[in-house]
């Protein structure tokens, strides 16, 4: 009977231990979430097929603001453009975890938390830096026996809540400063580069000299000491230029294109006097179009005759695009972007002009939608308006060709008469387009540019699509 009592007591103790472990584990699992309670997490979205990280340019909402489906929360700089981030959730913005700094944030990183509709947003608990410090291992007494509960590590150390850009961090290191010494003017008490520079200028603090011990070596007494580098005057000023996410992405894609695509080139000259005369006539009639608008139209029609140049890569295959979508390079403060003139072969020159003007205007203020610059079957880069006579362009994958257009210049022809000749260089993927096809494409293009009436009226062989007058 006594043995039975001992067994029952031990069984009860084991059961109570098990229940305690369950309660502790349940409590830990609840506390280890980055968003406590019923908060709705908002993570860095993927806003383009090639995006792996982004930078928040501007928040349009602040903590405590009501959020409705379709509201724009912030602008995010992707690898291609600045895109507005709209949410489908409803509630109140409880916490902003990533400020509008120069730091790049990987896709899937928690950037903000919403409180569901009807709940007090101030009760949503967010740990510092969106991470949780694991609760200390409790020790309790069960029936006189002390039980220590070991909790699993989250694997994420709680870091300083302050976020510094790389230039700020470098200045702090170079001048041996602490962020606590400097008054911060950024949103949510973020230290900005200007804050550090103002502090350096007002206090006159000098850079910390780096000293490194090296083994003593015996040298001849007459050996001259190595000349020390000339110190930068304390009055010298400089400024760091942050490289945008778009520029980084452009450089990466161009490098991949040059190293992974069999670039080949062909250059041609064509007389554009008739084209310039037509442009002047249209201008008198109140139709304002640019030389580049005619080039886009001529390229689009030439691509119909030479579909090999209208191919795009789809995985391991290059396929002919079902439509002629011409990407036109536009320079913006953030970098180069290529808005697309869809179905350019079906548009009149005036329609092309209006489309390019509208897209370029929004591109320069980072207001393009992803579908307006992603895709395209062929690209055009025109530097002629800057006086560039000739240049070569890098193919924009997954496309197989790009035309680099230079400026027109007076040239003495064989009859001793000056004519305006424009030079254009075709870059093409030699794996897809052979030299003969590239040459024929340029010949067709020159025909349209030298005799623009064919381009406007659609007078050419094997043409099946309608062409509109400008």
UniProtKB/TrEMBL annotation:
Keywords: Acyltransferase, Lipoyl, Pyruvate, Transferase, Transit peptide. Residues 163-200 form the Peripheral subunit-binding (PSBD) domain. One of its GO terms (biological process) is pyruvate decarboxylation to acetyl-CoA. Its cofactor is (R)-lipoate. GO terms for molecular function: acyltransferase activity. It is an enzyme of class 2 (transferase). It comes from the Eukaryota. Residues 39-115 form the Lipoyl-binding domain. One of its GO terms (cellular component) is pyruvate dehydrogenase complex. CDD domains: lipoyl_domain. InterPro entries: 2-oxoA_DH_lipoyl-BS, 2-oxoacid_DH_actylTfrase, Biotin_lipoyl, CAT-like_dom_sf, E2/Pdx1, E3-bd_dom_sf, PSBD, Single_hybrid_motif. The keyword Methyltransferase does not apply. Its EC number is 2.3.1.-. Belongs to the 2-oxoacid dehydrogenase family. This is Dihydrolipoamide acetyltransferase component of pyruvate dehydrogenase complex.
């Amino acid at each position: 009977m006594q043995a039975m009592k001992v067994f029952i007591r031990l069984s009860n103790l084991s059961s109570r231990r098990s229940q305690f472990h369950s309660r502790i584990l349940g409590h830990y699992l609840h506390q280890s979430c980055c968003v406590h309670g019923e908060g709705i997490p908002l993570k860095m979205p993927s806003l383009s097929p090639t995006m792996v990280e982004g930078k928040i340019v501007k928040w349009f909402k602040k903590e405590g603001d009501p959020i409705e489906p379709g509201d724009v929360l912030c602008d995010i700089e992707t690898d291609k453009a600045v895109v507005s981030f709209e949410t489908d959730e409803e509630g109140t913005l409880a916490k902003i975890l990533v400020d509008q700094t120069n730091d790049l944030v990987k896709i899937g990183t928690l950037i903000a938390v919403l409180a569901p509709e009807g709940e007090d947003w101030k009760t949503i608990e967010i740990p510092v830096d969106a991470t949780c410090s694991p609760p200390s291992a409790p020790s309790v007494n069960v029936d006189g026996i002390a039980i220590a509960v070991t909790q699993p590590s989250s694997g994420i150390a709680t870091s300083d809540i302050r976020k510094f850009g790389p230039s700020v961090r470098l200045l702090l290191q170079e001048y041996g400063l602490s962020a606590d010494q400097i008054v911060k003017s950024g949103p949510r008490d973020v230290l900005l580069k200007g804050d550090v520079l103002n502090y350096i200028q007002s206090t006159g603090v000098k850079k910390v000299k780096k000293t490194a011990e090296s083994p003593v070596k015996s040298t001849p007494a007459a050996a001259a000491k190595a000349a020390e580098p000339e110190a930068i005057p304390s009055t010298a000023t400089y400024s760091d230029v942050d490289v945008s996410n778009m520029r980084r992405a452009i450089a990466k894609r161009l490098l991949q294109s040059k190293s992974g695509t069999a670039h080949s080139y062909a250059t041609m000259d064509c007389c554009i006097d008739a084209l310039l005369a037509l442009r002047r006539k249209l201008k008198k009639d109140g139709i304002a179009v640019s030389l580049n608008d005619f080039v886009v139209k001529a390229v689009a029609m030439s691509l119909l005759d030479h579909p090999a140049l209208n191919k795009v890569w789809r995985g391991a295959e290059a396929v002919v695009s079902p439509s002629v979508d011409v990407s036109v390079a536009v320079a913006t403060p953030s970098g180069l972007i290529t808005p697309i003139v869809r179905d350019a072969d079906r548009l009149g020159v005036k329609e092309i002009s209006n489309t390019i003007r509208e897209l370029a205007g929004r591109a320069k203020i980072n207001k393009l939608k992803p579908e307006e610059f992603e895709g395209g079957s062929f690209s055009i880069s025109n530097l002629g308006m800057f006086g560039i006579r000739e240049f070569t362009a890098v193919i924009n994958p997954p496309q197989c060709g790009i035309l680099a257009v230079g400026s027109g210049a007076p040239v003495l022809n064989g009859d001793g008469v000056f004519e305006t000749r424009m030079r254009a260089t075709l870059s093409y993927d030699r794996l897809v387009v052979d030299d003969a096809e590239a040459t024929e494409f340029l010949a067709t293009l020159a025909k349209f540019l030298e005799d623009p009436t064919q381009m406007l009226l659609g007078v050419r062989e094997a043409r099946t699509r309608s062409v509109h007058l400008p």
